[in-house]
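Query structure, 150 tokens:
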């Protein structure tokens, strides 16, 4: 069983109402399905924030939107709600890996935007990625999948 960011699969959940559809992720999901694996699409932000929404980045460990509003509690709540949905769908099955959207304040893994809204990257994990790692789930981004590091 795999978890995959819904925006990478073409769902219009991105902050601006678009998506981050990724050919390699779509192909991975097709191969997994052909092997009898289940892919669960995830998006902790869609649970608690509207689309479109004001962009958010992490500043000193807090989720802050471009207007300066702290939305950390929404990100924590969205991550927890998404985990509860995953547990219900997984029904005890092992989650082998999560493929999440790089640099995102929810799904970024190892590298996230720095909070200046200038595209600069810094070391760190998004809120949802942190939760998954705490649960012992391996998390990668589409970048690792594309580069063949998986």
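Result returned for the query:
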């Amino acid at each position: 069983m795999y978890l995959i960011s819904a925006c990478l699969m073409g769902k219009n959940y991105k902050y601006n109402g678009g998506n981050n559809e990724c050919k390699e992720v779509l192909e991975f999901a097709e191969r997994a399905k052909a092997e009898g694996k289940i892919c669960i699409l995830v998006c902790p932000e869609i649970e608690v924030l509207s689309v479109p929404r004001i962009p958010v980045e992490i500043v000193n460990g807090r989720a802050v939107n471009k207007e300066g509003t702290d939305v950390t509690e929404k990100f924590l709540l969205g991550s927890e709600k998404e985990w509860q949905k995953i547990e219900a769908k997984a029904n005890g099955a092992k989650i082998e890996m999560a493929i999440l959207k790089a640099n995102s304040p929810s799904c970024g893994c190892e590298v996230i935007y720095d909070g200046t809204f200038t595209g600069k990257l810094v070391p760190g994990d998004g809120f949802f990625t942190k939760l998954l790692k705490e649960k012992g789930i391996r998390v990668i981004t589409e970048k690792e999948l594309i580069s063949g590091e998986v």
